[in-house]
Amino acid sequence: MRNSKNYSELPYNPELKQRAKELRKAGVLAEVLLWEQLKNKQLNNLDFDRQKIIGNYIVDFYSPDINLVIEIDGNSHNDKYEYDKKRDEYLECLDLTIIHLKDKDVLQQLREVMDYLENHPACSAGTPPKEGNN
Questions:
Q1: In angstroms, rounded to a whole number, what is the distance separating the alpha carbons of residues 130 and 43?
Q2: Largest separation between any pair of C-alpha atoms in the chain
Q3: 97 in a structural domain
Q4: What pTM does this model have?
Q5: Residue 28 is part of which domain span?
Q6: Does residue 89 form part of some domain?
Q7: Would you tell me which of 4, 20, 105, 106 could form a disulfide with 30, CB atoms 3.0–4.6 Å apart?
Q8: Do 105 and 113 touch, CB atoms closer than 8 A?
């Protein structure tokens, strides 16, 4: 069940709605590949949104279940160190955890990226053991 409290309490700039929709349709390969692994609660039974508006930013993936943002950093992030730092500081002030992935890792080592996410402390907190509840 979606944590609607976390979801609805985030700041939202409705002027970015069209841009978020365009980004979803653009189909950046690394994002599409990772989305195929995140959607439908495939990662530790966590719910994710793609191209989620948070304040004046659009994040690649967001899980309201655990207040997690996953960003794929590729060429579009080159020479944007200050912008990315400011965005991360803003998101962290909202008590969000940010995981940065390199696009080349998603493209070339997707299984390893998924193993990393499955075992990351931010993604595994509160998930039941895979074997069951003995």
A1: 12
A2: 50
A3: yes
A4: 0.86
A5: 4-124
A6: yes
A7: 106
A8: yes
